Amino acid sequence: MRIQINTFGTEGDIRPFVALACGLTAAGHRAAICTADGYGPLVTSGGVEHLPMDDTARILIKAAMPTMVGPAGSVRLVRRMIAAMRQMIGDEWAAAQSWEPDVIVYHPKCLGALHIAERLDLPAVVSLSLPFFTPTGAFPIPFIGNWPLGARANRASYRFNNVTMLAYGAMINNFRRQTLGLSARPRIDNLLNRDDGSPVPILYSFSRHIVPVPDDYPGHAHVTGSWFDDRAAAWQPSPDLEHFLAAGDPPVYVGFGSMGFGRSSQQRTELLLRTLIDTGHRVIMATGWGGLTATTGGIPADQVQVVESIPHDWLFPRTRAVIHHGGAGTTVAGLRAGRPTLICPVLGDQPFWGHQVHRIGAGPAPIPQRRLDRDRFEAAVHQLADDRIRRNAADLGRLIQAEDGIAKAIAVIEELR
Question: Which domain holds residue 199?
Answer without folding.
Answer: 2-223
